[in-house]
Sequence to fold (262 residues):
Amino acid sequence: MKFDDLIADRAGIYAGLKQGVLIGVAVLAVTLQPSGSATSRLASRDAPAALASAIPAPTPRTAEFGAIEPGADARGIADWVATSRDNRQLAFAILDKRAAQLYVFSADAQLVGTSRVLLGAAPGDDTVAGIGQRPMDQVRPEEKTTPAGRFISHPGRNASGEEVIWVDYGAAVSMHRVRIVDPKERRLERLASGAAEDRRISYGCINIPVEFFDAVMKPMLGASPAVVYVLPERKALAEVFPAYALARDRANQASIRHEPRG
Fold:
């Protein structure tokens, strides 16, 4: 074999080996994606959504209101609690701030009672930071809000020794019997009013008629922890209760998928 032919053969072998190595590296690069790659991040991001869609939705249930006709938001939250069992087998209450109306349910979503209530004088769905540590005479009018959200309530007593049901202990928001502090406020007359705007007078606490507190609140929420859902009046319901909104959207999508074609 000539020297030039030998060199050519060796060059061909080298080129073949080089090509094989490059192909092997390429295969490994595709097969062994690094954990921080775009493909890996995409798969990681999509996995929870795919997993959630694979979980069967719970069987829909409705809360029992009897002859009472609640607002649409109160009905929606009550049915969601009944279906999802978000109350964790505890008694629960729904406070519709727009209507200034309280609904109290047993753990199995049966309405036990409903009552008009007095709420914070100022509209709003948030609590001012640190307000629970301030004396009442230092609370400004615009800060007298009843916060919206999901709360675990606890029976207890306030600084005056009064029997209360704490909704948000840190913000000093509780449910208690209506009390006459200043006769000029006419709290009893406000409770009797059919206009929800008349029932905005408190510093943020939820004032309840004495008879209703003793007959319904004490046995249902006054002996052990419970769940209290305070509906917003300015924020969207989905913003305050995202789990409810997710379940509602999922149910709507399911109904669309199963809608018969015309």
